[in-house]
Design the sequence.
């Protein structure tokens, strides 16, 4: 693992996946990105309910770039659109989240979820097939038994690699509201799924029941003031999980305390700055993502304008706050009108927890180095298309004179948003999803 | 990149979002609609505070021109349940005349109204302005102390005696204590730019300088050059007549459909009468004044509300204040015909459901079937009119997802 943060290393373009046209088919919009535990596999989910998995090529020392490229490994339709007849609701097939299970045998397993149903998929390789049947021809036609004169034993022969994805478990009918998160426990046997008002605990083997561990639904829906926006298990403590709310709070719960974890063990909340009050204060304080650090000591939250790092031992305020695009604060009204204010940005840690990354508009994404306190803005664009082209830092000019190479706030393209980013667990390789393209960047190798 | 940051347009935009979310794939998104409802609430609070400022200022001007005994008449007339003449009244004019008995029931009634309608604003206001105990309780007791200048509970004679009201003058009016119900986030202060009307402006402070006899009752409540912190400009700048003062006969209910249990529950709410009438032609309001942003409704046809007309016939005799003729409802024909039953006395459920249905279209057929009357087709959504409606229904929009 290379030392240094987002600014000591130079990020280079590596690959881009997806259609080139500007006309984006809605089904192709990427809705989630996730590396597996080794970083060898990279999964994306889209609005059309498909999962595409990329696999990193084995490193080839002969070639000049030291890290393998990611190529399509498997593509399958995970979820289909459904219709809930009872409520007259259409259930979108959009994949909200993908989470990988750690690898236990030759096959890979991942959980994918849409608004209502979670599925456990097994992805396995087949590179051999039996050949030499007695009663069947190679193309499958049956032979006339009377023409068989000798017998032979079928043998396995190599074939072109085939990757098969099969649904092993379907966890359905447990959520009334829209699922926003799934998180696999460190025991690798259970996982949680969270919707707007409830969190359920599942066992990976059992599909016909789940435990409800958090329920914030008020007796009178009129009294609803907040919803759950994200939830995650602690990476090391299998009894601990957190969930964030639309009010900007994070609750840490201990499942040992009680069966129903409605009472939090810790409540993380930063008092609001009254001078920043506006019509939209509630919206921009809503947390869109929460992620534990790999160490488990910290957690990161993303709200509309900032990224906050919390020490689990300190509840009254975050230890670090990074402004992602503070220049948007004066534009909140327009962003409300065009619905951009509701965009849910995700955030991620690098493998050593020293740098955090999140997306922004105009296909910009931002990295914050926690040690050097420096930050950088980069752009995911096909213009920097050549492999190993070093990305140039970008700068947004909030007001006043615009320097050369700066871009003014009003010229930002709010349709080009980076909501989903992922960082390789071990290397400085990042996957950045624009609307319908997946960019892979790596640090410069000399 | 600029957009109109005025309350009225924000309310329209928000309602449009809620309406369109019904037809989006995947069903209603609870989170997004919850956030939109917060914006609605914030915008409405600003809108109301602006309205009150306007009304209050207008009423103050009136008071200055009228002799005190005349005001007493008004006070005597303005019994609870008859806010018709209260439209432009300062808070002190409501609740009856000078005698205690008239005051008490009025006070209690007004207090109830205020409780219902101001739950939201209390905590925040109290925290920010660090003012003493809630007016409501103090007011109900009839005690002038406690800064109850805003309330109708103060006796009219006290209102006319600025010296008695002196302690209150320095205090901006505030809404009452919250009720016990849990609430969404408390009222946020608007950035100064959003609240153009400052009750601490000189115009509002002209009252104290008037001769005692003619002093407008609101003088007691006006905060002249109040040292309220500039850093916390509130939606309620004080010196406004409490919205509930007008809302006596406009209380209604909100109906909520629970997605889990499919239970329909109905919750009491209060309506801002002034706004539900929303035009100069409201028969109930007497001299209902179109507030800012209502000019846009001028082009809408009005429906005649025979029911309300009858009820308010007596009030029209108040004369001086009832200058406007009863003109029928502010709701345009594209609203459901249901609105003829809008008078809450007759069928609060139906009216509110019709509110919801007309806003959300036909998706709530389940609700409709429970109300045999509410069987008309929902009208096409009119963002402007729905804005009026939203403004009228103080309580309904303070909550999160109603009927989701």
Sequence:
């Amino acid at each position: 693992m290379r030392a240094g943060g987002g600014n000591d290393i130079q990020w280079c373009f590596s690959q881009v996946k997806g259609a080139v046209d500007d006309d984006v088919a809605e089904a192709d919009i990427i809705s989630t990105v996730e590396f597996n535990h080794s970083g060898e596999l990279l999964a994306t989910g889209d609005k059309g309910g498909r999962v595409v998995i990329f696999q990193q090529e084995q490193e080839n020392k002969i070639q000049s770039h030291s890290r393998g490229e990611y190529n399509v490994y498997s593509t399958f339709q995970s979820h289909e659109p459904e219709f809930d007849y009872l409520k007259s609701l259409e259930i979108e097939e959009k994949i909200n989240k993908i989470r990988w299970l750690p690898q236990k045998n030759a096959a890979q397993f991942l959980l994918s979820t849409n608004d209502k149903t979670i599925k456990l998929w097994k992805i396995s390789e087949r590179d051999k097939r039996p050949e030499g049947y007695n009663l069947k021809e190679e193309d499958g036609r049956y032979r006339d038994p009377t023409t068989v004169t000798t017998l032979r034993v079928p043998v396995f022969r190599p074939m072109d690699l085939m990757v098969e994805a099969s649904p092993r478990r379907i966890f359905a009918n447990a959520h009334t509201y829209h699922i926003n998160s799934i998180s696999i426990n460190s025991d690798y046997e259970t996982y949680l799924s969270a919707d707007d008002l409830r969190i359920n605990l599942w066992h990976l083997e059992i599909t016909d029941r789940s435990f409800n561990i958090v329920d914030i639904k008020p007796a009178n829906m009129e009294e609803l003031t907040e919803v759950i926006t994200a939830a995650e298990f602690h990476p090391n403590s299998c009894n601990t999980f957190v969930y964030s709310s639309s009010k900007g709070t994070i609750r840490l719960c201990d499942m040992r305390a009680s069966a129903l974890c409605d009472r939090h063990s810790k409540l993380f909340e930063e008092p609001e700055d009254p001078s920043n009050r506006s019509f939209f204060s509630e919206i921009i304080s809503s947390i869109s993502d929460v992620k534990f650090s790999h160490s488990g000591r910290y957690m990161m939250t993303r709200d509309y304008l900032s990224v906050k790092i919390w020490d689990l031992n300190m509840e009254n305020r975050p230890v670090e706050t990074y402004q992602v695009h503070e220049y948007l604060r004066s534009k909140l009204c327009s962003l409300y009108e065009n619905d951009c204010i509701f965009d849910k940005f995700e955030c991620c840690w690098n493998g050593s927890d020293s740098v955090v990354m999140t997306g922004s508009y105009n296909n910009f994404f931002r990295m914050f180095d926690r040690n050097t306190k420096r930050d950088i803005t980069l752009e995911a664009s096909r213009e920097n298309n050549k492999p190993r082209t070093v990305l140039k830092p970008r700068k947004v000019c909030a007001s006043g004179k615009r320097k050369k190479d700066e871009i003014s706030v009003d010229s930002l393209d709010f349709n080009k948003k980076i909501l989903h980013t992922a960082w390789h667990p071990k290397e400085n390789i990042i996957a950045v999803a624009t609307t319908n393209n997946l960019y892979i960047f790596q640090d410069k190798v000399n | 990149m600029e957009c109109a940051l005025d309350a009225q347009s924000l309310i329209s935009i928000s309602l449009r979002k809620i309406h369109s979310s019904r037809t989006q794939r995947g069903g209603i998104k609870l989170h997004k609609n919850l956030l939109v409802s917060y914006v609605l609430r914030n915008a409405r609070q600003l809108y109301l505070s602006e309205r009150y400022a306007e009304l209050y200022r207008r009423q103050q001007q009136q008071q200055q021109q009228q002799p005190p005994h005349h005001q007493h008449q008004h006070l005597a007339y303005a019994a609870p349940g008859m806010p018709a003449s209260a439209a432009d009244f300062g808070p002190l004019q409501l609740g009856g005349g000078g005698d205690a008995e008239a005051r008490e029931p009025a006070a209690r009634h007004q207090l109830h109204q205020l409780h219902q309608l101001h739950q939201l604003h209390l905590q925040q206001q109290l925290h920010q302005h660090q003012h003493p105990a809630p007016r409501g309780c103090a007011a109900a007791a009839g005690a002038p102390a406690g800064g109850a200048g805003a309330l109708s509970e103060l006796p009219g004679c006290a209102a006319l005696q600025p010296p008695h009201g002196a302690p209150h003058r320095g205090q901006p009016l505030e809404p009452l204590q919250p009720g016990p119900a849990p609430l969404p986030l408390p009222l946020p202060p608007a950035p100064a730019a959003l609240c153009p009307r400052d009750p601490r402006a000189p115009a509002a402070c002209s009252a104290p300088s008037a001769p005692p006899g003619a002093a407008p009752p609101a003088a007691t409540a006006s905060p002249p050059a109040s040292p309220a912190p500039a850093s916390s400009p509130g939606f309620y700048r004080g010196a406004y007549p409490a919205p509930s003062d007008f809302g006596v006969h406009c209380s209604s209910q909100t109906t909520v459909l629970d997605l889990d249990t499919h239970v329909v529950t109905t919750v009491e709410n209060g309506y801002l009468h002034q706004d539900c009438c929303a035009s100069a032609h409201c028969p109930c309001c007497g001299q209902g004044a179109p507030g800012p942003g209502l000019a846009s409704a001028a082009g809408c046809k009005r429906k005649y509300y025979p029911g309300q007309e009858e009820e308010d016939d007596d009030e029209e005799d108040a004369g001086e204040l009832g200058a406007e003729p009863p003109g029928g409802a502010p709701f345009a024909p594209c609203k459901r015909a249901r609105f003829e039953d809008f008078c809450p006395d007759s069928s609060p459920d139906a009216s509110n459901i019709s509110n919801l249905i007309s806003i959300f279209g036909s998706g709530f057929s389940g609700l409709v079937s429970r109300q045999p009357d509410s069987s008309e087709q929902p009208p096409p959504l009119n963002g402007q009119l729905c804005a009026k409606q939203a403004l009228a229904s103080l309580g309904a929009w303070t909550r999160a997802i109603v009927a989701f």
